[in-house]
Specification:
The complex is a heterodimer of chains A (about 160) and B (about 290).
Chain A lengths: L3 E6 L4 H15 L3 E8 L3 H4 L7 E5 L12 H4 L2 E2 L1 E5 L9 H8 L2 E2 L2 E4 L5 E3 L2 H38 L4
Chain B lengths: L3 E7 L3 H13 L5 E7 L6 H8 L4 E4 L7 H9 L4 E6 L2 E3 L3 H11 L3 E11 L17 E3 L6 E5 H7 L11 H11 L3 E13 L9 H17 L2 H22 L3 H11 L1 H6 L6 H6 L13
Parallel strand pairs in B: 1-2, 1-4, 2-3, 6-9
Antiparallel strand pairs in B: 4-8, 5-9, 6-8, 7-9
Helix pairs in contact in B: 1-2, 7-8, 7-9, 8-9
The chains are: A alpha/beta (about 160), B alpha/beta (about 290).
């Protein structure tokens, strides 16, 4: 019987995961179960990982979101949740971080493209979410303002592109 | 055995390329042509090819033109099948034979996505389970660090988009290949190793081309209703992530794509709706590689 559970959310390319997985398994050792949450289209491709004990399918297409969390993982308790990110800071992965708020865990980490593992608190995710909400409102407003100009320009270019 | 042309695009990775070429040649394959297109490297790559590998065909390009340089190699290729590689990737032993066998089973296979795996610069490879099957799966895209392309399909649909420079070029080619009625398959166990290393993510080049070219993919191939919705989504994402990451790069890319949209419209074509529906375009990808 293994001592704990580590959930890895596959939020990066398989090729980057190839590189990060050995770092994760080195840090958390062999005494835990590794579960990998991944989109349906990549299930076959992640079967190659020997250290993954269980693959959980994320059936929805597109970005991870809180409305499509598989029931199976909602019930589980995870000792650690790991989010691999494809940059240094984790910018652009807030949707995955927000998803972890609805999962049962006390330890959320990101692992960046250099292989650095950093803990992130639920409080920090909530603060980021608050700012995200503000940015979203501003972005909607600015998008509505910009749209007529963008489409007008695109229309002119489409009509006259041969010239 | 059918003839294979390996086409490699090189740019300032002399040592990695040398290492890859040595490995490929050590397999002793017959009926193999190797073409290196050099994108104006300044580290002595061209000289290294001429001196150390005189039998390899070198196509030098005057200035770095990005992935468009691959097309020069594809045109020159005399093989029935082309193996596309990066200058830091190389096929495992047996991969080329598996690729040929798969192409020859079905003439509607246009592209074979090979099993690209990471190898770090010290030569360490992640330990994987042995592939128990060579069963192919049908997919919608491929990784340009290791893929097979049927030469006749290249002649029919063309190669990478000249206007892209970098990124989304595989998706662009995939759409044209699928639209022409060919298939893209993933071949597990036909391994290509890629010396993957984290790039300088502060560089603005990645997010710029990722964002701009996604706009162009939408303008080139999406039906009008999807085009409108996707452009709205992209504008929103560009503004949102500019605020979140405190950068102007996404807005620059958006402006550039719209200003130069004629380049995309010139190549606009009707794509079967089921292909667009099945595409796995991750809009947010462009916004997750910076910083």
């Amino acid at each position: 019987m293994k001592k704990g559970k580590v959930l890895i959310i596959r939020s990066v390319s398989i090729q980057l995961l190839d590189k990060l997985l050995p770092i994760i398994t080195k840090k958390f050792g062999n005494s835990v179960d590794y579960l990998l949450l991944t989109h349906s289209h990549s299930v076959k491709r992640v079967k190659k990982y020997r250290n993954i004990d269980k693959i959980i399918e994320y059936k929805k297409k597109g970005d991870f979101n809180i409305f499509s969390i598989p029931k199976e993982i909602k019930k589980m308790f995870f000792d650690y949740i790991l989010i691999p990110v494809s940059n240094f800071s984790g910018a652009g992965f807030l949707n995955v971080l927000i998803m972890t708020l609805l999962l049962r865990t006390k330890n959320i980490y990101i692992i960046n493209s250099k292989g650095e593992i950093k803990k992130i608190s639920k409080g920090k995710i909530l603060i980021k979410s608050f700012f995200s909400f503000i940015y979203a409102i501003i972005s909607v407003f600015l998008t509505i303002l910009l749209l007529p100009f963008v489409f007008m320009f695109l229309f002119v270019n489409l009509v006259f592109y041969r010239e | 055995m059918a003839k294979v042309s390996i086409v490699i695009l090189s740019y300032n990775r002399k040592e990695e390329l040398k290492d890859s070429l040595k490995k490929i040649l050590s397999y002793g394959l017959k009926n193999l042509e190797i073409i290196v297109v050099d994108n104006a490297s300044t580290d002595g790559t061209k000289e290294m090819i001429k001196n150390d590998f005189p039998l390899i065909k070198l196509i030098p390009v005057d200035k770095n033109i990005g992935v468009a340089a691959y097309n020069k190699g594809f045109k020159k290729a005399s093989g029935d099948y082309i193996l596309i590689l990066d200058d830091d990737s190389y096929p495992d032993k047996g991969t080329i034979e598996k690729m040929i066998k798969t192409f020859e089973k079905d003439e509607k296979i246009g592209i074979i996505a090979l099993d690209v795996r990471s190898e770090d610069y010290s030569g360490n490879k992640e330990k994987f389970s042995e592939e128990k099957t060579n069963k192919i799966s049908y997919i919608m895209g491929f990784n340009g660090a290791g893929a097979g392309l049927r030469k006749s399909v290249f002649n029919e649909v063309g190669g990478y988009p000249d206007e892209f420079f970098l990124y989304w070029n595989e998706m662009d080619l995939s759409i044209r290949v699928l639209n022409a009625g060919y298939k893209i398959v993933w071949l597990p166990g036909a391994v290509v190793y890629h010396k993957f290393s984290p790039k300088n993510r502060e560089s603005e080049r990645g997010p710029f081309f990722y964002t701009r070219n996604l706009f162009w993919i939408i303008l080139k191939y999406f039906p009008l209703n999807r085009l409108i919705l996707s452009i709205i989504k992209m504008i929103y994402l560009c503004i949102y992530f500019s605020l979140e990451q405190r950068t102007l790069i996404y807005l620059k890319a958006m402006t550039n794509s719209i200003k130069n949209s004629k380049k995309a419209f010139k190549k606009r074509m009707k794509v079967k709706r089921e292909i667009i529906n099945k595409l796995k375009i991750t809009y947010k990808l462009a916004f997750t590689i910076f910083r």
